[in-house]
Amino acid sequence: MSKKSPVSRSGRFTGGPAADVAQFTESISYDWRLWKHDILGSLAHAAMLRKIGVLTRAEQIAITRGLNTIGKEIKAGKFSWKPELEDIHMNIEAELTKRVPAGAKLHTARSRNDQVALDMRLWLRDEITALLGDIAGLQRALVSLGEKNSDVLIPGYTHMQRAQPVYLAHHLLAYVEMLERDCERLWDCQSRVNVCPLGSGAIAGSTLPLDRVLVAKLLGFVDASGKVQLTQNSMDAVSDRDFTVEFCAAGALLAVHLSRLAEDVILWAGAEFHFIKIADAYTTGSSLMPQKKNPDIAELTRGKSGRVFGNLMSLLTLLKGLPMTYNRDLQEDKERLFDTADTVRATTRLMAAMLSHTTINRAACAVAASDPALLATDLADYLVRKGMAFRPAHHVVGAVVAQAEKAGKPLNQLTLAELQTVDKTFGRDALGVFNLKTAMASRNLTGSPGTKEVAKQLARWREQLS
Ligand code: ARG
Fold first, then answer.
1. CA 87 to ligand 1: nearest atom
2. Closest alpha carbon to 186 in 398, 66, 56, 344
3. What are the pocket residues of ligand 1 if the criterion is a CB atom closer than 6 Å to any ligand atom?
4. Which residue's alpha carbon is at the smallest distance from atom 2 of ligand 1?
5. Dihedrals phi, psi of 167, to nearest 5 degrees
6. Residue range 46-89, pLDDT digits in tens
7. Residues catalogued as catalytic
8. CATH of 113-367, one of 3.30.420.10, 1.10.8.50, 1.10.3720.10, 1.20.200.10
9. CATH class of 372-465
10. Which of 419, 427, 413, 415 lies closest to 397, judged by CA?
């Protein structure tokens, strides 16, 4: 611990904090990640201070140069972080002031309370943009896998029981839809992240004539129509972390979707399904069983969803009892936010890479999809077309299934005579129902797994994602 008082204690305190206190309260070990955004915020603040006459032109230039140099040193890993300076804000400002005397003016009308709120908003804004790109990458990987195997059929499942045939692409596009809703939630979250809190001070703004609009414009806090976005209540602005909760909630739902996709991949890669083969580079082996090839990326994706849900719960709990306004508790928001962003971004990227290195075992899919029982519902629809009400039709086909089971043959091997012993409505054309190709061609509703419809959806996504 340094004997010297850190910036925030000068004047009021007789010395620095005790070593264990410094260690307990520091955040530089993790909030150093905000450095780029902290510097960007300071550059904008300095430009504004110059405009309102707090800084001279020469002082602003010196501060700008100093901050840019510090930025370069941090980037190069040459900046030495001082835990006794608590956090990213004081580390940078203290070093700047050591090098540039005018640095002492930089904190005019600014508090770490509005500074940290600003840094986190700037940081999260970039992360959301990057995450949206990662998600689009995963969507593209899903669409490509569907396109490459556009004729492959698999059973669709409900209750983990074979239900009805679907194109593999239809199954994959279900995830593309989920991921698109994740993007929509993130865009929406972004609109509330993208609001400038600087100028709120510690709690009650400032008596100095700050130009908040200029700072917001310099930092890109404008909406799609170019309207400047400023927080409207200084007390709210320094204590609001709703945007971190919103992001972690959107991240949690994204993690749910990734986890479900992972579960399908894990099932499909196993010998029982054998629908897919993941490239060696995207699997791991067993230290004991030489034959094993494990889908660890998918398993970790499923497993890591837990910490993402935990982060959301931590943030909600962190905020729920806080009196107005800023409380040091809020420092605990960072690791949770960082962890959610890191985890969902890495899992999204890794899942995309893994799927881009996955091939489909067409033979195994074909065998599974050719189970004629998958078309039992089509046989009921056949009876409906002949004029029977659906409930009795369902009952009749149930009896046909039982009959086939008793006879020990697949549904499509029953003779017309056998069908007619169950119900006379069956005609010569009844067995035609079991032609998979025509069965798939006849599913034409919007959103159905029909041949034309799936091709249309693949084309729509290809276009939308390009
Ligand atoms: N490191 C602090 C945080 O993350 C910055 C704000 C500190 N403000 C204060 N008044 N101590 O919340």
1. 1
2. 344
3. 27, 31, 87, 112-113, 116, 326, 328, 330-331
4. 331
5. -70, 140
6. 999 999 999 999 999 999 999 999 999 999 999 999 999 999 99
7. 159, 286
8. 1.20.200.10
9. mainly alpha
10. 419
